[in-house]
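Marked as duplicate of an earlier ticket. Keeping the data here for the record.
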Amino acid sequence: MVVEGPGAAQYTTDPTTMEPGADDAGRLAQVALEASATEGHPLALDGRLSQIAALVAAETVQQGAAPGAEVVQFFARHLGVTEPITSVSHVAYADIDSAAEGLAAQIPAMIGRGEFTHFGVATLPSGSERVAVFVLTRRSVELTPVERARAVGPLLLSGTLLGDLRNPEVVVTHPDGHTQRSPAGAGPRFQVRLLLAATGTYGVELLGRGQQGVTVVANFQVHVGEAAPTRLAITTSDAGGVASADGVREALVARIAEERARAGVPALELHAGLSAVADAHCRDMVRSDFVGHDSPTTGTPAMRLTAAGFGSGLMLENVARGYSAEELHRGLMDSPGHRSNILEARVTHLGLAVVAVQEGDRTAFLVTEVFTQMTARVDTAAAPAALVTAINEGRRARRTAPVTSDELLAQAAQEAAEAYFADPSLTEQDITDRASAALRRYAIAYRRVGALMTVVTRIEDAGRLEPTFDPDVTTLGIGVAQGDRPGQAPNAIAVVIVLGWPR
C-alpha cells in the first residue's frame, strides 16, 4: 500500500478545523454535530480524521472490504494523528436523506457515554451507490508537537492529560526491540526527556490512569535518521480462516509463543485458572459495554487475580478488540506497553480468553491476556544449603566472616516453615515466635537467638536479607517449605532463618 505525499511533518493534538461543506460528507457531518450536541456529548469535526475517512473509503471501494486496523493506524500516523483510532464504521447508501436520517438515529449508540471527542467523515461513489465512512476518536491529551522524522538526540515530550486521567507514563520501543518505561509523575502535566540515540523507528506510547484503569492516550512512531514511511506492506489476514473465538484464542497463544521465542525469553505455560479469570473479564466487558482493565464490578486486574486465588508480585494484563487474531496481535505488538507485557521475561504463566461479539454482518473479538509470575517447584531439602552459600557470598562482599549452619537451629527453622502451610491461622509473627521459643532450651550456647521469615516466589530472593549479614552473627539455621495458603501465590515458598549470636 502506498500513501501519496510526504505526510505531516509533526504529530499534533491540535484539530485541523473545518466547517461542514455542501456535499454529502458535509451533510452527514452537520447531522453528527447537531445530534451529538443534543446528546450532551458534542463532537468536534477534525479535518485529518476526515482525510483518514476518505482513505478508508477509497480502500473499501477498491478492495470490496474495509481495511484492517493496521492500515487505519498507518493512515493516522501519516497525517500526524497521535490517538488510537478506536472506531471506524462504513455504510452504503442510495440517497443522502435516508443516510442522514439513519446517522441521526445511530449517533446516541455510536458516541456512547461521551467516550469520543472528535470525528471525521467522507463519502465516495461505489457503483450505483455511495459509501460513507465515519471515524471517531477520543483525544485525551494536549501534546507539544513532535517531529515525525528527526535526527539522533534527545526528545522532550511534554503535555497535559485531559479529563480524569492522571499518572502519565511514557513507554518507548527502541529500534532493537527493547522497551523502556518512564513514569512522568502524578500529572496531569508531564515532561519526559527521551534519548533517541540510534537510527531507526521508535514506538512511543503515552499511558494515563483513569476510571477504567490504564489507558493508551497516544501511540505514534518517531523516525530517527530516516524519512517517515509512505508505504505499508500488508501481511495476509487470517479473518477468513479463523472465524471462531476458539480459533482466535489458539492463534493468539501461538503468536505469543513465537514472539517470545524470537525475543529469546522463556516460554509461558498456558494456565486454565488464569484463562478462566481472563474469560470472566471478557464477558464482563461485553455485559458492561467497555474495553479496559478496571471493571466497575470486579475492580483492577490484581483484584481479579487475587480474588481467584492467584496472588503474585507480578501481574500484567492486555485487553483488545478486533476482527481477527492477526489484527489483534499486531495491534498489541504495535503498542510499546502491550508489547512489553507479551515479552516480559519474568512472567511464567499465561491466561488467555476470547469472546465473540456480533456486529451486524461482522464478528468482533474481545481478548484478555493475563501474564503472571508463578513459583516453580523447588528442592526444599537442598535449598537451605544453597541459601547459606548465597548468604556467605553477600557477607564476603561486605568483608564479613562466613556463617555456619547449625543442625538444631535448622531443625527449629524447618518445623516453623512447615507450620506456615499446615496451619493457615498462624501469622508470620507467630511462625518466628515459634521458632525462637523452640530454641530457648539452647540459650546457654548463645547470647541471643532471633528468627526472621519471608515468603518469596524465587528462592534466591531469600539469600539477600539484610539481618543475615550482621557481622556478629556466626551461626544460623534455615528451613524451607513450599505449598499453597490463602492470600499467597500458588506454590509459595516460606523461608525461616534462625540467627545465633554467640556468647
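See parent ticket for discussion. The chain has four domains: 10-137, 141-224, 245-372, 383-502.
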